[in-house]
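Morning run. Coffee first, then this:
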Amino acid sequence: MHTQAGILYGLDNKAGVVLPTQINPNIYSHQKNNVMETMQKHEEHVRICFDCAAACEHCATACLKEEHLHMMKECIRLCRDCADFCKMCASLTARESQFMAPFMTLCAEVCDACAAECEKHEDEHCQRCAEACRRCAEDCRRMSVTG
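And here it is:
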């Protein structure tokens, strides 16, 4: 018998094949904890991205109903862009894409632009959108560095 990667191997006498006979459960506990922590960070980031996307979609829809629609064009455009970027960022994060970190950096820039535009308007939906965008941009920057 010999060990490899925490598995104790023995020889199956009938077929002459080496089979795992005993798995040391402690060998994988550290890896399991790291995977769980990463999954939790990713799940939280996905939630923040989707919350931002929802706030942006709501803001764009509400802006379309405003009496001063001509003043809201840039806000609507940026909210729609930001919602699309946040949804894509959430998808890339959920699947742990190799492109998620650079996309998070770009998503943070779009969120910042949307927040800056929304902060120019006193409407409550714009202020809520700006808050969600700032939160998402901050989390995107953090995640792009820490993964």
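The radius of gyration is 24 Å. Good start to the day.
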